[in-house]
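Re: beginner question about structure tokens

> Can someone show what the tokenized structure looks like for a real chain? I only ever see the sequence side.

Sure, here's an example I had lying around. Input first:
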Amino acid sequence: MSGKWEWSKVAATAVFGLISVCFLIPLLWMVSAASKIESEVWTFPIRWIPKTWNFMNNFQEVWLGKVPFTIFYANSIKIAVMTTAATILFSSMAGYAFAKIRFAGRHAVFGLLLSLMMIPEQATLVPRYILIRWLGLYDTHEALVLLMMFSIYFTFLFRQFIAGIHNDYLEAAQIDGAGYFRTYWQIVVPLSKPIFATVAIIKFIWTWNDYQTPLIFLVSRQLFPIPLGIQYFKEEFATSIAVMMMASLSAIVPLLALFLVLQRHVIRGISLGGVKG
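And the corresponding structure tokens:
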């Protein structure tokens, strides 16, 4: 290992470390502001450690105050969990079919699906709105789950990963009498844990943060998820940035916890899914 290479590695680490700190500064400021009284939030230069701690009062204002934050939170968990589970099921089965099951027109259908990714989501809002009204699902959580449970992108990720599984495993299962579903459930799923974790965390985050779909398809306040519920904090606490930051901090806790639990599988799944196939 040469000295030149070591210095370049140290320099690259320092640069990326500095960039990481820049990305963390807004999060640290949010945590700091959520712990302060209002008069300390806008002090300059920034006082990162609050002079007067007000964390518990802000916490109680968010969770026990006038805005039903617990209802918004429960709605977000329900929608995100149901959508993520359905997406994993359908996308993984579709990916398995495109990767390992031979049928006429397989490559043509897969290419057609990929071409549909070029259509912007906003271009299909009106047809989706008409469809949901026709099904009688407008202003329900089921409408959001139905609209977000199918994904070409995640089908592509699953297909790429499953294509890397050696055919010997699948042929051995078929010799033992396993059908397509049993092969998928007992062979493909256990060997594909990294891509399952990757899709789970990405889909959960996307669904949790989605603002557009609930805004279009929900009108009842008691059905709102957190992205819409945060709007009520802007109306009730427009001049209280500390409470707003506490609500925002509470909203990202599940995302941080999920990423910390699954990060090892996520990194491996993305790297493998991007090169196989």
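Each token stands for a local structural state, so reading them left to right follows the chain. The mean pLDDT is 86.
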